[in-house]
Amino acid sequence: MGGKRNTSLIKESNVDVLIIGAGPAGLMAAHALAKSGVNVRIVDQRPDKVAAGQADGIQPRTIESYDLAERLLREGNQVHMAAFYNPSASGGIALTDRVRDVAAPSARFPFEVTLHQGAIEAIFLDSMESLGVKVCRPLTPTSIQVSENDDQLKDVNSHPVRVSFILGRVVLRNLSPLDDHEESEIVHAKFVIGADGAHSWVRKTLSLTLDGEQTTYIWGVVDMTPDTDFPDIRNRCAIHSNNGSCMIIPREDDKVRLYVQLGDRDAVDEESGRVDKSKIGPHELLDATRKIFYPYTFKTPESFDWWTIYIIGQRVASKFSVKDRVFIAGDACHTHSPKAGQGMNASMNDTHNLAWKLTQVLRGWADISLLQTYELERRKYAQDLISFDRQFAKLFSGKPRTEEYMDGVSHEDFFKIFQTFSGFTSGIGIHYAPSLITDSSYQAHAKKLIIGQRVLPQIFVRAADSRPVEIQDLLPADSRFKLIVFVGNSSDATRRDRIRRLAEDIRDVLRPYSPDGISAVFEIIPISCAKKADVRYNDLSKLFGCHWSKVLIDDTDVSGKQGGDGYSNYGVEPLVGAIIVVRPDGYVGMVAPFENVKELGAYFVGFMKVSTPLPNM
Amino acid sequence: MGGKRNTSLIKESNVDVLIIGAGPAGLMAAHALAKSGVNVRIVDQRPDKVAAGQADGIQPRTIESYDLAERLLREGNQVHMAAFYNPSASGGIALTDRVRDVAAPSARFPFEVTLHQGAIEAIFLDSMESLGVKVCRPLTPTSIQVSENDDQLKDVNSHPVRVSFILGRVVLRNLSPLDDHEESEIVHAKFVIGADGAHSWVRKTLSLTLDGEQTTYIWGVVDMTPDTDFPDIRNRCAIHSNNGSCMIIPREDDKVRLYVQLGDRDAVDEESGRVDKSKIGPHELLDATRKIFYPYTFKTPESFDWWTIYIIGQRVASKFSVKDRVFIAGDACHTHSPKAGQGMNASMNDTHNLAWKLTQVLRGWADISLLQTYELERRKYAQDLISFDRQFAKLFSGKPRTEEYMDGVSHEDFFKIFQTFSGFTSGIGIHYAPSLITDSSYQAHAKKLIIGQRVLPQIFVRAADSRPVEIQDLLPADSRFKLIVFVGNSSDATRRDRIRRLAEDIRDVLRPYSPDGISAVFEIIPISCAKKADVRYNDLSKLFGCHWSKVLIDDTDVSGKQGGDGYSNYGVEPLVGAIIVVRPDGYVGMVAPFENVKELGAYFVGFMKVSTPLPNM
């Protein structure tokens, strides 16, 4: 190698999943796949990771899931309160109302976490590194080809996607032919995820279009440590003034992000119609802020941490995948305004949805057709997001209603949107439509545990040691489906016989998909309505073959302050019982009747691959 | 150095605090002092840290304090439930009752954490290492001398204690004269802490006696992963059977510790009267266990993690210090039975009590006489501990009451002791008597915040961002006294004038002790009873010169589920107000009347050193 200067040196390699782009969507995917032991590679054309700025809001649902909570809660700021300011009679602005920032009643963490994107990415990067996976950077993709060979596409073990790269960050339009470059590389992948942002090279190269339009709303963003007498500087604020609108997002340490509305003339180049960043900087953003906040004052800080200007555009990609071998995710498939704090969350949720499906397919557990549910579920979500964002951005960018301007946006109008979409903005209201993996036939057996939504948080108590546990913590994204079995009262001897038969029936249904022991592919969590004073955990751990820590009861903890009412909160009748199938991403996939375990088989046969012949059901 | 073989090589060095012994008491001291930036050295004669066995229970109070909670909760097992078994009518044992393991109602963590001693020590060792402090080992002390010179003893900057060491672990009775050893060392210390265990060399060498006696109760202890059908194996259990008593302590992973009562003849050498470890091993302990647990069964495990045998002795050292320059702590000053889970906690609390006092004296903030309160507070506690332990051990080792043996211990007798002492065993009931630093004159101004006890846990809400915070988390052991100022309603303009004057008065009182800015030596936490809907945090942060995150209000959080009633839970009248002085170890030192700030001055003048002339009060 040492002697071959100035000649082409092309490395070729195979990988199961190649991820292009190491932002939140790409890192979520790489981390999830690495944790599942999938052979994965992630590349990025930026030479370094993000240091400041960019996205910063983590929704309650994102905190709940993904094993991020501990570090997010330690490092991030929490936003509990939202304050609304409007024009006051005496000129300037005044406080109209303070309300809880997260209105969704079932939020386990009733707040948002704010933290700069680099810190959030570091959580994934650190955990990935402990698994031996690093981002390869800077590496610029130059071509991508997907095989047209149907046989190859059907064979999950083939590598039908060919991607070539050159080392370094290269502006593509200046590229000379590939063989002029000293170092380059060709990767053959089973699957590719394009998580390369709003200007996605993957999306453009594969001719996937982005549908939608640009608005005329122009906003500036600035991160700084403020020195102000404004009494809500540590709350999320929506300010409607006669001098424009502003949003405050308090951040880690003493930092704050300000979104400031700009008049067209401030920043748009009259000739080209484009935003002209040479005409405006953070000092101009601060000047605009001061006009909006009058009579409150902001001193000029010693420095600004980050700033930018953007025009809101709302667009969704026409397709999210090519032949179910290349997928795009995150900003590559949806762009919208950042102020509702959706961007990073939507992006991470895209690949969280995709990663477990890829893992199940690559392990040979699920059929490749499972991957179609990615576009089905996430494109519908993206459309809902854009539709919400249109309404929100319009009301937020609109002039406030005053006696002189009765067509303006009233506080009531704005507040209504804020409340109505709280399930959506918190990430908690996401509801996947019926599909292969979302079967709502037996919703009546667990009336309040909505099929297609995430499992409601609920504290149960461990039968063996009365320790209270949050059921969500027993449902990690470890690629396995979970079966929560509401068995009724296991302290009752007659019922126990019934439970014994049920346990055998469940084993019969699952065994074909998991010949090496059921817990390799599934996790069973039995929940009894026996009480802590007399329950015997070993009655159930033996029947279901599970570890003692997985046997739960529906009772309060020893202090009486936590837990209880789980059956009723989920709408399960103790005398009837129910089996809840939870997808690896924490969403309810189906409810099976306690008395009809066959339905469980009918669900799994729809997308899972039988490893041994199915028994006669 | 290389050429000088076989000749004496004596290093000499000075240190502020020398700690002998790196068990829980020594490590707590070293860690606390290192965190405070004190020049500290810790030595141990054991070549390695503890790997298994030894103490394993962490009380609720120990979890609350010391910044250990996060890692303890992640790594340890939690004990929520206690189960009691007694002889059943049909032979063998049966469940009598299950109750909460921690009955103290104000416990913030209503459970114990169990984890082997090595893991607990590792928490300190890791944190110390990040501060650049390591245990010097193996190093055996050979002599200790305390100066008799009064002038030197009075001068806090002198090094009146001389300790010599030899490198290695050496059995002292076999020692030849010091100069026969190649490597040795002399340390001159300002202060020495002897935390070298029940057989303390420091204690013996300084002729401090251990008063008390040995009982006739002989117990075995074995740690293992059990395979049993006993349904309470994951609860703390007290088993009284006609074949002896047993206690179960469930532990991390699937491990369990068993304390098993042994008959005298099993283990006592008839000639010497000593426990004969050659006559008994873990298999014999398991056999005794099986007899006690009948009809439940225990399979023989593949291995035992740790085991030992002990005779209960209850003793307290006659003195805890020599000239306030050498202190003994932990097992060096009190020994007792391990079953109530007190040992490690008592030891760590000893040096937690001592470390902040040493820090304040070494920094020149407090007078050296402050150190007398160590023995005053901790010896009284040790005596209470021994008195409790006598009653507990007697009842636990006693035969159960049956129809044939009506003089035996009834479940009611035992349960009563268990409940009565719950404040004590949880560590929460510790109550330091009046002294220089514990002044209960104005208890009536905060009726329920008992002076001399730890600050009751209570959730308040931050005024700036409505985030709920546990007040205990704002009272870290950072060597500073904290002043919690209950100001009343800061939203009321008249009251605000009153608060302004109070803030000035407090500053006048504290300034002499803290000329470089009050927050160098004290932390002020104002708590308003204004509500989150209208409070302005900056009203108070400005007056008291504190960070926005320290201004609290007595209100519920946004979900309405946490916080509120803080004034009433502490017994403070909103219209009156109160100032609570919290010691650096989290105990209430005094309550000062809102209307009489002079009393605050009278408290601090008792032990703190004035850096500038006191203003005229």
TrEMBL record, chains A, B:
Domain FAD-binding: 15-135, 181-388
The species this protein was found in: Laccaria amethystina LaAM-08-1
Family (UniProt): Belongs to the PheA/TfdB FAD monooxygenase family.
PANTHER family referenced in this protein's UniProt entry, alphabetically: 2-MONOOXYGENASE, PUTATIVE (AFU_ORTHOLOGUE AFUA_1G13660)-RELATED (PTHR43004:SF20), TRK SYSTEM POTASSIUM UPTAKE PROTEIN (PTHR43004)
Domain of life, source organism: Eukaryota
GO molecular function, one term: FAD binding
Protein name in the entry: Phenol 2-monooxygenase
Phenol hydroxylase-like C-terminal dimerisation domain location: 430-610
UniProt cross-references to SUPFAM superfamilies, sorted A to Z: FAD-linked reductases, C-terminal domain, FAD/NAD(P)-binding domain, Thioredoxin-like
The entry's keywords: FAD, Flavoprotein, Oxidoreductase
